[in-house]
Amino acid sequence: MSHIETDLIHSGKSFNKTHAIVPPIYQTATYYAADNAEEYMAAATEARHPHFYHRHGNPVSSQTAELIAKLEGTEAALLTATGMAAISTAVLSVVKAGDHVVAQQSHYSAARVLLKELLPQFGVEVSYADQCDNASFEKAIKDNTTLIYLETPSNPNLSITDLSFVGALAKEKEITTICDNTFASPINQRPGDFGIDIIVHSATKYLGGHSDLTAGVICGTEEAVNKAWKKLLTLGGALAPFDAWLLLRGLRTLAMRVRQINENALQLAQWFERHPLIKRVAYCGLPSHPQHELAKQQMKGFTGMLCVEVDGEDEQQQFQCAQKVLNDLDIFANAASLGGVESLVVHPASMWGLHHSNEQKLKAGINDGMLRISVGVEHIDDLIADFEQALAKI
Ligand SMILES: *Cc1c(COP(=O)(O)O)cnc(C)c1O
Question: Which residues have C-beta within 8 Å of that of residue 50, sequence separation ≥ 6?
Fold first, then answer.
């Protein structure tokens, strides 16, 4: 059996029918100038055929998808235009009117909108479980529950869901599970190993890793992925040829990037813990994280995502101090997204206003002084020095 580093370079290459080491970009909407009618019919009717029409598939998309399926340890994978296309397509391939879904209190904001607004619009009811409390998943399940939707570590608060507990519970009750594995990446966590059925990613983040593309991926059994592919044909979120090619290029260095990022984030989190102006550090690699033991059981590394709370006398002052730190940072850019080679930071309290009321923000664990940090691959001494000078200016 090959190792992840080798898989990242070689998996999926049977889809490259040329002699080129790097596959060409097939910048075409349609492929099949078929030699005969039978061949055309076969290409038109086969699921995920890589040479028929762009929405059906693309050779580089197939190569990249096979590589990601290998990383997640699933039978198959399907690429989509964005992470949200992966999430919405996967969810809509499982639920129908009259079904009930169990989700978490804390999810990526656009996924929350899907659960809160879109699904109820089509007669799908959603209940919310506290991801840190296994019993609350059990309590939330109803007779018509067909899906449990998970995200761990979750955005932005880095709470952990017990994957083997939920995986076993769902298997027993014949409920499908989907897990958003974006924050962990398959280098650090493979939900399929704990009984989760479908794994989704925003490949815009760690998988792509260079903040130069948007993409998503749905991983699961051949059957589950083909079901999602049929929905994708209708919903239309196929990944463009150039972005599939860029994603493949980014993936080559996934293991090295993620390991360096894990190491940088741990050192930065430890430094924050000693800083007098930082009230709280949320990083699942620190023993102070309330779910550190669980994180150790299901993760091989703890990602580059961490949250810190800047101290202040009251909420208003915390809000202002957090914004001041953002303004004074030089290396960390104040930009949305995460998982790239460059370090980014956002202030969730100023960002989540679009979709969340104040009460919802608090429920999702978002405080006024909180900064969410995505650690990149820069030198750790420079990253620490940047926060040191910014915090000194408060
Ligand atoms: C960014 C993100 C998404 C959405 O991905 P897009 O590629 O922006 O559509 C979904 N889930 C998580 C956890 C994310 O961080």
Answer: 15, 57, 58, 59, 61, 62
CA of 183 to the centre of ligand 1 (A): 9
As a whole number of angstroms, the distance between CA 184 and CA 162 comes to 14
For 36, counting Cβ atoms within 10 Å of its Cβ (0-12 exposed, 13-18 middle, 19+ buried), the class is exposed
Which residue, by CA, sits nearest to atom 11 of ligand 1? 108
Listed in sequence order, the residues at least 6 apart from 275 whose beta carbon sits closer than 8 Å to its beta carbon are 387, 391
- In this prediction, residue 353 carries a pLDDT of 65
Report the C-alpha gap between 246 and 16 in whole angstroms: 15
The two beta strands, 100-104 and 145-151, are parallel
DSSP 23: P
Probe target for ligand 1 pocket from 108, 178, 305, with the most ligand atoms within 8 Å of CB? 108
Q: Is 205 in the active site?
A: yes
Amino acid at 214: T
Amino acid at 285: G
Residue 21 has pLDDT above 80, yes or no: yes
Q: What is the mean pLDDT of residues 317-337?
A: 95
Check pLDDT > 80 for residue 100. yes
How confident is the model over 120-162, as pLDDT tens digits?
999 999 999 999 999 999 999 999 999 999 999 998 889 999 9
126 - beta bridge partners?
101
| Distance, C-alpha 5 to centroid of its chain | 20
pTM: 0.96
Residue 133 falls in the annotated catalytic set: no
Q: How far is the CA of 87 from the centre of ligand 1 (A)?
A: 9
User: What contacts 117, CB < 8 A, 6 or more positions away?
Assistant: none
Tell me which residue has tokens 């974006």: 182
Domains and CATH numbers, the chain: 4-251 (3.40.640.10), 255-391 (3.90.1150.10)
With 70 as the cut, is the pLDDT of residue 354 above it?
Answer: no
Q: How far apart are CA 383 and CA 376, in angstroms?
A: 9
Beta strand residue intervals within the chain, DSSP E: 76-80, 100-104, 125-129, 145-151, 176-180, 198-202, 216-220, 278-282, 305-310, 333-334, 344-346, 370-374
Crossing angle, helix 83-92 and helix 222-235, to 10 degrees? Answer: 110
Tokens 């979750």, residue?
A: 154
Facing residues of 28 across strands? Answer: none
Examine the residue annotation and report whether 17 is marked as an active-site residue of this protein. Answer: no
